[in-house]
Amino acid sequence: MRTDRDHALSLDAADPLARFREAFVVADPGLVYLDGNSLGRLPAATERRLAAAVREEWGARLVRGWGEGWYEAPRRIGAKIARLVGASPDEVIVSDSTSVNLWKLLVAALLDRPDRRVVVTDDLNFPSDLYLIDGAVRLLGGGRSVRLVRSRDGIGIDAGDLAAAVDGDVAVVALTQTAFRSGFLHDLAAVTALAHEAGALVLWDLSHSAGAVPIDLDGAGADLAVGCTYKYLNGGPGSPAFLFVRRGLQERLGNPLTGWFGHDRPFDFDLAYAPAPGLRRFLAGTPPVLSLLGVEGGVDLLLEAGIEAVREKSVRQTEYLVALWEERLAPLGVSLKSPRDPARRGSHVSLGHPDGLRVDRALIEEMGVIPDFRAPDNIRFGIAPLYNSFVDVWEAVDRLRRVLAERRHEKYSAAPPAVT
Amino acid sequence: MRTDRDHALSLDAADPLARFREAFVVADPGLVYLDGNSLGRLPAATERRLAAAVREEWGARLVRGWGEGWYEAPRRIGAKIARLVGASPDEVIVSDSTSVNLWKLLVAALLDRPDRRVVVTDDLNFPSDLYLIDGAVRLLGGGRSVRLVRSRDGIGIDAGDLAAAVDGDVAVVALTQTAFRSGFLHDLAAVTALAHEAGALVLWDLSHSAGAVPIDLDGAGADLAVGCTYKYLNGGPGSPAFLFVRRGLQERLGNPLTGWFGHDRPFDFDLAYAPAPGLRRFLAGTPPVLSLLGVEGGVDLLLEAGIEAVREKSVRQTEYLVALWEERLAPLGVSLKSPRDPARRGSHVSLGHPDGLRVDRALIEEMGVIPDFRAPDNIRFGIAPLYNSFVDVWEAVDRLRRVLAERRHEKYSAAPPAVT
Questions:
Q1: Chain B partners within 8 Å of A285 (Cβ)
Q2: Partner-chain contact B98 A286, CB within 8 Å
Q3: CB contacts < 8 Å between A and B, how many?
């Protein structure tokens, strides 16, 4: 294992995806940005697209914009995302936030399984997903409850523990495929099969997977999914989320948020609700067009690069980071808080340190590295292969080593982290 | 009554708000745009703000943008909107779509009044609001039902009919203040008092009122409200909506969509939900930042002009339009589909014609006028006093007269209207 910077440079020189970095706006080339799993970088094409959407569409075409692309955008962009997650074009649509989409699909699924009362999830899930699951179960009542599978090591979920939780009382298995803290990756096909064997539906949150990990929703027979577009899809801050409903379920499930964009004929202004055929029924209100149009440029880049090539580079980069950690950081008291097996890991690596928050601060404030921090002690390095280089990985490890060696973190407080 | 164009020019010359037109991007100065109640024009400051948000914030500051303004934006912009609707700064927040906000507040209110089973609304309401009310009532069950007050003339709601519907079984009176089709304006204070006398809560949809009509939510003692930002607030296509909860109710009501942005400490990533104190609990997921930031510029212009001055001009303009209609269009078979009394009318005027859709098409396709059309026969002229002139009103009437006199509409089909 070579740990010198020249080796990182040589890996970049041989990287077939290196050219994609030029497709992004990089305002500060010295910045080592490893937080693309919180907010992806700005694609240059998106900057141009948004300027045109503001001036040429809103400014000049005004309300006519709805008939000239805006109204179709949730489906058009959804169809592109479908190619990244192994779905058919008419199985993915962009709408609302991940939270609202998760709630819509979970409630739809629970109402579809009135004889079953349990939702299975795990404690590595996004807390927000847990809040929403809990809220939906309370609202629907009827004896429904949540069964929480707990991680034994804080890093992954034991497959046997999960299997033991999925029995004939389960209506829905609702999991996040890639855990936000550790990067642990559920086996989507195996868990989907497990849920189906028990007669349950499965609802995947793909927020930390989409654009980073190949996903085959249709191949796995998955029922429902949601996912974020502002992480590896590079859609912009808070850009609207996507949702997936397997075609065979689309006519059976109803959207509990019965807004006009999900109506069969929204512009007839009928007094009675009639759900649109197909996936459009899962829209609710008018979508935030500018934030929505910002999603397309990043998706286009991923489709051009190919998700298999992205994953191959991602695995090489996370493996490289783990190897550098072992050589250079483990001796300084830094632990690995992600799975060691790349097959069970998404595109980020978490490193643990008792002063993790202060180390994170020092990296941001004086070392030109942006990771992010997740309590209690995880410094999270997200790798977006389209714009992160091997040198980025090398620099992150080297600068983290310097923070610790020079005790630079000790002057920072352990106050709550910035909003990310 | 002078019906010549020079009179319109003289009215514009004496108009103290005329200068505000220059604050908007007007790509086609010859276009008579009277659809600001569907999508308001682009403020020049918003174009600059959005370009900076994309390049300087997302592009250069990346995830740090959350700590540098994005996270606070729902409250900061909400506090500005509060001044337009007679609320305190901590009573209004920007979040999600109008549809999702209406649903959140309605469900919160129904759960607060479990002993009462009826929601009162009227058939002039947005169909989308009716769909959402109906969906919420069905989801909660428990014998709840909707009581629909019907308009006698298709233009307004009889105050006596409404009063008769609000009895001791009513949990919530949920109305849109300004009717989307006719422009009929409910008396917000009187209806709020009526609801309170019956022990019910009131939930106002202010989508066609905010930015056009002075509203005094606190003065009326109103409980709950939602409203759109892309109409008279000029926030951009599908920009996120606002919601209002009276301060005294904020700690009592819960958000049924329990996402992380409504959590007390979202960045602690606790597994258990704990609602934020105050209004922030009514946020759900991550907001669409670009669409959100687009809201501020238009609100600033309204605050600068003053809502009383905007209303004064709006009344003069709608009165002018009605007067011109009576002289020049009524003889051609055009009817008035809005209230005659300006005190009972918002900022748009609907004119009826049996070939309304074809007339609307002719105005758009060959006359350089953009109104919009609402089935069955309403041609709707929305007046946004910040950028619409008296000459705009004069031209709209004159060009409509020419369409009819020259039978230009007859070559258009009556196929479904464009998406607006």
A1: 96-100, 128, 241
A2: yes
A3: 301
Residue B322 pLDDT > 70, yes or no? yes
Residue B269 to chain A, least CA–CA distance (Å): 6
pLDDT tens profile A220-244: 999 999 999 999 999 999 999 999 9
Is there a single domain that holds both residue B211 and residue B299?
yes
Reference A65, options A264, A294, A300, A289; nearest CA is: A289
Report the gap between the CA of A170 and the closest CA in chain B (Å). 21
Nearest C-alpha of chain B: how many angstroms from A366?
A: 14
> Contact B216/B189 with Cβ under 8 angstroms?
yes
Contact B289 A236 (CB under 8 A): yes
Predicted pLDDT at B415: 74
What is the tens place of the pLDDT at every residue in A291-325? 999 999 999 999 999 999 999 999 999 999 999 99
- Read off the pLDDT of each residue in B105-133 and give the average, rounded to a whole number: 98
Query: What is the tally of structural domains in chain B?
Result: 2
The pLDDT confidence band at residue B363, using thresholds 50, 70 and 90, is very high
Distance in angstroms (rounded) separating the CA atoms of residues B309 and A411 = 55
β-pairing, A145-149 vs A118-122, is: parallel
Among A29-33, B19-23, B183-187, B267-271, which is the least confidently predicted range?
B267-271
pLDDT in tens, B29-41: 999 999 999 999 9
The answer, yes or no, to whether residue B133 has pLDDT greater than 90, is: yes
Is residue B297 domain-shared with residue B329, that is, in the same domain?
no
Contact B263 A128 (CB under 8 A): yes
Give the H/E segment covering residue B323.
Answer: helix B307-324
Q: Is A174 found in the same domain as A319?
A: no
Residue B48 bears catalytic tag = no
Chain A positions in Cβ-Cβ contact with residue B59 (cut-off 8 Å): 25, 27, 41-42, 47
Domain boundary among A247, A276, A303: A303
Residue A420, in any domain of the structure: no
Report the pLDDT averaged over residues B207-220.
Answer: 98
Radius of gyration of chain B (CA): 22
Catalytic sites of A, residue numbers? 126, 205, 230-231, 380
Of B277, B304, B331, which one is at a domain's C-terminal end? B304
Question: What interhelical angle do A295-305 and A73-84 show, nearest 10?
Answer: 30
Interface predicted TM-score of the whole assembly (ipTM), two decimals:
0.97
Contacts of B51 in chain A (CB under 8 A): 51, 54
A327, A352, A401, A405, B390 from A333: Cα distances, Å? 12, 9, 10, 11, 74
* Percentage of the residues of chain B whose pLDDT score is greater than 70: 99
* Percent of the residues in chain B that have a pLDDT greater than 90, as a whole number: 96
What are the φ and ψ backbone dihedral angles of B176, each rounded to 5 degrees?
-95, 125
Statement to judge: residues B115 and B248 lie in one domain = yes
Instruction: Please answer yes or no on whether B59 and A71 come within 8 Å at the CB atom.
Output: no
DSSP one-letter code for A389: -
Residues A239, A351, single domain; the answer is no
Q: pTM of the full predicted structure?
A: 0.97
Among the partner-chain residues A39, A103, A268, the one whose CB lies closest to the CB of B63 is: A39
CB A371 within 8 A of CB A396: yes
CB contact under 8 A, A273 and B130: yes
Asked if residue A247 belongs to a domain, the reply is: yes
Most A CBs within 10 A among B291, B357, B373, hence the mutation to make, goes to B291
CATH for B325? 3.90.1150.10
Task: With CB atoms and an 8 Å threshold, state whether B70 touches A284.
Answer: no
* Catalytic (active site) residue B411: no
> CA of A242: how far to CAs of A41, A71, A105, A181, A233, in Å?
19, 16, 12, 22, 11
Name the more confident of B414 and A39: A39
pLDDT band of B237, cuts 50, 70, 90: very high
